[in-house]
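Internal tracking record. Fields below are filled automatically when a chain is submitted to the structure queue. Please do not edit lines marked as system-generated. If the sequence contains nonstandard residues, flag them in the REMARKS field before resubmitting.
Queue: standard
Priority: normal
Entity type: single polypeptide chain
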Amino acid sequence: MIRANRSPALAHLIVDEQGFGWLPEEDFVGHFASDVDPKAARVLCAVQQGLSMSTFEDVMGTPAWKSFPSSYLVATNDEALPPDAQRMFAKRMGARTVEVPSSHLAMVSHPNDVVALIESAVAAVDDDREARASVATTR
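SYSTEM-GENERATED OUTPUT FOLLOWS
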């Protein structure tokens, strides 16, 4: 899947002999973390952890989003995972969606937006829990 039509951030992905993928510094800084301070992006590149390429083929169990309220942050300037794909995933999940003009590393370049999304997701779970408790006590 990842080999065909690679996005700009993954165009020069290096896969090592153990099957882990690594981004070269130029692609990491210029595409993967394009809106992060370049010095910070180089540090993040230097400490990146390889991603097992089997991740893209592994079969998972039932996803949590099928049972819980879900939220999704679409990074509209993401050059690793196309924003339209992110929107499709969010729609399939029935997720409340927030969009930010970010690279793939929104948690670094837009931390306040990420925190706000997490806080609203927690509030949604709390509201869902209260609604379920209210229904249970009226039975």
